[in-house]
Design goal:
Chains A, B: One of its GO terms (molecular function) is DNA binding. Chains A, B: InterPro entries: HTH_LacI, LacI/GalR-like_sensor, Lambda_DNA-bd_dom_sf, Peripla_BP_I. Chains A, B: This is LacI family DNA-binding transcriptional regulator. Chains A, B: It holds the Pfam family LacI. Chains A, B: Keywords: DNA-binding, Repressor, Transcription, Transcription regulation. The structure is a homodimer. Chain A has 13 helices and twelve strands. Chain A is an alpha/beta fold. Chain A folds into three domains: 53 residues, lambda repressor-like DNA-binding domains (434 Repressor (Amino-terminal Domain), Orthogonal Bundle), CATH 1.10.260.40; 117 residues, 3-Layer(aba) Sandwich (Rossmann fold); 132 residues, Rossmann fold (3-Layer(aba) Sandwich). In chain A, the strands form two sheets. Chain A has a six-stranded parallel sheet with strand order 2-1-3-4-5-11, with helices on both faces. The first copy, chain A, has a six-stranded mixed sheet with strand order 7-6-8-9-10-12, sandwiched between helices. At the A-B interface, helix 2, helix 4, helix 5, strand 2 and helix 6 of A face helix 2, helix 4, helix 5, strand 2 and helix 6 of B. Strand 2 of chain A pairs antiparallel with strand 2 of chain B, so a sheet runs across the interface.
Chain lengths: 324, 324
């Protein structure tokens, strides 16, 4: 195996110069750099992966920041990101932010130090300025920031279809449970579209927001218990995730309400769990696997200087199961 | 900011020598190495994270290989691993093997090149020899290999308790659905203990193995449909995961069987989904979060040369919900 000394000799430069090229440090003329690269190729010099990263200025790492990987939506999204990153020879650095802005910021800083090729941001507690200071290629999930490409489902159409379905099935008193609307997320459009559609149809509705924490089960229980206490005659629920829909289903069972006889339920996402539930949960399907693939492609296109779309909105699909 | 040149000057050595120390290449006397380290400290020389990895021979990366992150058990395990790795300043490299031995081997090779601090192996298609050739600290999940520490739940006691519960509730015709027993996993002990307990109690039972693919939903459907076709009078099912238990529940609903009136169901894992289901799934709980924490600690202890336990078996707990 050839060493850095062999490379230096072949290129007719000092080892220091080779090291500088490797470390991308100090002034090196383009001619010298090319000589060193050529010598490395000719000698099939194999620095280890870390040294190679320095050489290529690529780490073959893609960072993914999600609120919590144990949430089925993010687990299925990460699955797709990992699969497609692997096709490009990239590995996945996985970070849970737990919606903690400090942890999110610290993770972004770590990723910069590790020179990740790009960051897919699926957690959104940070201010827009924190993103602007990044030089890495970046893609956001479900958040629109000028100058940064995003992937999202057609949230607007999703919210509208959920409302239309419940109304068409005869529901006249609707509840909608959504994430916290203070988070600047495109998912909020589900709520606005649902409310607008109900309003235009003259159907009564109420909207309940969860806490900032995406995944607090006791919070879901509290909200749903309160909903049925104050509005026992609710006959249609649109939940912003299949998990919340499953919690509504659980409460209906507890309170002796027939689904879909007394009350109809529509979720969002179509995570696998929606079809495992009994009864199977009717839901608005986002194409999670395709969104993951596109997120990876958007990183690669930015790296390679290829053109790319800024707005990547995926059509939703109504999947009718047994809760409507 | 100080440069590699400043470090060389302060240490009284050439830049090549500093580079050698950084790259851990060529002969360097211990005295020179210490001089270079001291100069770096005094000058607060900050090589980037990748260069620092070379310096410390630590990457601050922990690799986790799972069959599929979208499986709730592995998603929750990864969540815990990420959380505890973060406490140690480590990031998580996540790999899905999809139970493909080639992909598993390739991932392990990649991790070596990236100089990960350690590998947590949650996927087990490889032969024991493939593990032995690794020099990195390694921890396995649910597999016992001489000389490698593992974490697992008390599978034996889990299988026994599931059988005892079903029998105590009056079940007299049991079915057990398990993973593929050709995989060399400690989870297989659930099956052996379940079968032994049923046998000792003189209760009839049948065991059905799933395919190698951990997560083929149509396979679950096929197995369960066949089970009820051949044995419509089964009155107790022990499934090796809560997901499979949810599928059994779905089939019972489809076939008009009352749960727990006509048939009782026990799962394994206690992933969050088990409590979201309606009725809530009775299950054998493995302490997933603690197992993740211990896996990370076992990597750190190996790195730091601290003593550690080889066999880390965690007590299970019976969580009774509505399916028994």
């Amino acid at each position: 195996m050839s060493t850095i000394n062999d490379v230096a000799e072949r290129a007719g430069v000092s080892v220091t110069t080779v090291s500088r090229v490797l470390n991308n440090r100090g002034y090196i003329s383009e001619k010298t750099r090319q000589n060193v690269y050529r010598a490395m190729q000719e000698l099939q010099y194999q620095p280890n992966e870390i040294a190679r990263s320095l050489l290529r200025k690529q780490s073959n790492l893609i960072g993914l920041i999600v609120p919590e990987i144990s949430h089925p939506f993010f687990a299925e999204f990460a699955n797709a990101v990992e699969f497609h990153a692997y096709q490009y020879g990239c590995k996945l650095l996985l970070c849970n932010s737990h919606r903690d802005p400090d942890k999110e910021r610290e993770y972004i800083e770590m990723m910069r130090r590790h020179r990740v090729d790009g960051i897919i941001m699926g957690s959104h507690t940070l201010e827009i300025e924190d993103y602007r200071n990044l030089n890495n290629p970046i893609v956001t999930l479900d958040r629109r920031i000028d100058g940064i490409p995003f992937v999202a489902s057609d949230n607007e159409r999703g919210g509208e279809r959920a409302a239309r379905l419940l109304i068409a099935k005869g529901c006249r008193k609707l509840a909608h449970i959504c994430g916290n609307l203070r988070l600047d997320m495109l998912a909020n459009r589900r709520t606005y579209a649902f409310e607008r559609t109900a309003q235009e149809s003259g159907v009564w509705f109420t909207t309940l927001q969860t806490d900032m924490n995406v995944f607090d089960q006791s919070e879901y229980d509290r909200i749903i218990a309160e909903l049925f206490e104050h509005h026992p005659d609710i006959d249609g629920v649109f939940a912003t995730s299949d998990i919340i829909a499953a919690f509504v289903l659980k409460w209906c069972r507890k309170l002796g309400k027939q689904v879909p006889g007394d009350i109809r339920i529509v979720g969002y996402d179509d995570v696998r769990m929606a079809s495992w539930a009994s009864p199977g949960i009717t839901t608005i399907r986002q194409p999670i696997a395709e969104m993951g693939r596109t997120a990876v492609e958007l990183i690669r296109k930015q790296m390679d200087g290829e053109p790319y779309e800024m707005e990547n909105v995926f059509p939703i699909e109504l999947v009718e199961r047994e809760t409507t």
